[in-house]
Amino acid sequence: MSERPRLAVIGAGPAGLVASLAAAARGVAVTLVDAAPQAGGQFYRQPAAGLGARRPSALHHQWRTWERLRDGLAAQVGAGRITHLTEHHVWCVERESASFAVHALLGPEEEESVVVRADAVLLATGGYEKVLPFPGWTLPGVVTAGGAQAMLKSGLVLPGRTAVVAGTGPLLMPVAVGLAAAGAKVAALVESADPKDYVRHARVLAAHPDKLAEGAWYAAELVRRRVKVHVRHTVVAAHGTDRLEAVTVGALDTDGRVREGSEWRVPCDSLAVGHGMLPHTDLAETLGCRLDGVNVAVDDEQRTDVPGVWAAGESTGIGGAALSLAEGRIAGLSIAARLDSRAPEPRSYVSAAKSRAGLREFFAAVDTVCTPTDRWVERVGDDTLVCRCEEVPAAAIREAVDELGASDVRTVKLLTRAGMGWCQGRMCGPAVAGLAGCPPTPARRPFARPVPLGVLAREPGEGL
After folding, report:
1. Do 231 and 312 fall into the same domain?
2. CB burial class (10 A; 0-12, 13-18, 19+) of residue 9?
3. Angstrom distance (rounded) from CA 245 to CA 268
4. CA-CA-CA-CA torsion for 452, 453, 459, 464, nearest 10 degrees?
5. Are residues 157 and 251 in the same domain?
6. Residue 99 and residue 252: Cα distance in Å, rounded?
């Protein structure tokens, strides 16, 4: 009997899970590599077993979908068709003639590395939050919207007792409802977008009644829990000494500027703020995959332009769990067929393809409405830290552009050290580009995460 073809799936969120199941069911030996101790990704993040959560389903939508994925994974692992490697932090993927070597650091210490070898790779690496600075954003008590949600889902803890949820995008409503349901007082939900702008996209939105119903449910929950919603508003500044004590909120005019005289202060001890998401593309860039803007470019089968490499989920464009599931299924079926030296049968994923097309259109409309205007840079004071790792203030970035002639993010980085810290610009990159007035550019880093020098000095780990 010939050896089964090998697939390495990086990321055990919705896209990675459904792709693994689809490929394994068709004879592919799948190794599912993930940094978390449990499968599920950010969307299906689970409380630690030791916390004894009695009703984890209360923290999630689409719980039945998660149960099907969880039980399917357990069955395939038990049958020996999928190897699930938890707490494996992938730092590099290398091409080795006709195969790939996936390098991962082990456990929370991340001091040892192993190599997973495969005939094909699926990048299901998800996304991360876009962070835009404002005065006071580094105070303890200020977290990202997704961070607040992760604290609640995985640790069953609140970022504070009195919260403000602010920024823009569809994530804000579930975060506000989740915090309120868990016992926090949500003093305000501050959304910079204007819901009336959705009228221009009525045709696209009407094609997704399930999404509209979900939004209506969250809106009703906000009303029921007496959360005050302020649209076309923004957090101007956060205040406090040792930690957050209040935020200043202001109304925005049609140009995105804070209207004079519209500001007021909201007492709170936590601020969950989010301005959208960006795809994780580090591994794709290292492999030489083409990007379409900030997303990994893929074809109708979710193939990148690098032979043997597929991508699915948020890495190809932010669009939520349903879109990730559709893309993951298409990728899994494509991989299984291509590793068997045949083209996939489009009829096998016609439903997923239809869902993918509709959801991409839907989230493109949402993105048009919720993308922050460039006016946010005017609210960033010169003394506001932009790069927290290297403690670079906005004044240094403005000086690099206005006085030293920097015209791109790389030059700003060289002149100011913004982006040279632990996160390597993943957090401050969009802010640096915005303040510099130039588009963000791919970093093309050799490694996707910090790697101990001892790991690089040693021989590669034994292949799996």
Report:
1. no
2. buried
3. 5
4. 20
5. yes
6. 53
C-alpha closest to that of 14 among 332, 325, 279: 325
What is the tens place of the pLDDT at every residue in 52-96? Answer: 667 776 666 778 898 999 999 999 999 999 999 999 999 999 998
Contact 396, 245 (CB under 8 A): no
- 6 by DSSP, 3-state: which? strand
* Three-state secondary structure call for residue 366: helix
Q: Is 445 exposed, middle or buried (0-12, 13-18, 19+ CB in 10 A)?
A: middle
Residue 142 shares a structural domain with residue 87: no
For 277-296, b where at least 16 C-beta lie within 10 A, e where not — what string?
Answer: bbbbbbbbbbbebeeeebbb
Report which residue type is found at 382.
Answer: D
- The distance of Cα 316 from the centroid of its chain, to the nearest Å, equals 11
Q: Does the CA dihedral 291-296-297-303 come out positive or negative?
A: positive
Question: Residue 29 is part of which domain span?
Answer: 6-128+278-344
The C-alpha atoms of residue 431 and residue 437 are separated, in whole angstroms, by: 10
The helix/strand/coil state of 241 is coil
317-337: pLDDT as tens digits: 999 999 999 999 999 999 999
